[in-house]
Predict the structure.
Amino acid sequence: MPLTTKKHRLAILQDVINHNAHAISQSMMGTVQRVLVESISKKSDEQLAGRTENNRVVNFYGDKNLIGSFADVRVIEVRSNSLQGEFVALSEREAKKRLA
């Protein structure tokens, strides 16, 4: 099979994957997601970065003490490779751990 055909097929596949990923991210808009807070955001020292249960990166403003815990975050914007969110609360389980 010629290389040009392979590249064309790969481009089609990548377009389908990107379209589906964007559709999934769009469906998360406005929802509250349980996020594992991993670190400070790569693009802003003022934001935290975490991952949803379906492995989407979410950046949001929050206390740096949240790193390493689960937090509830509302998705407020869908970006090309990540989501923007707003901190809602510690997850119920994390809140109980901190009270103990």
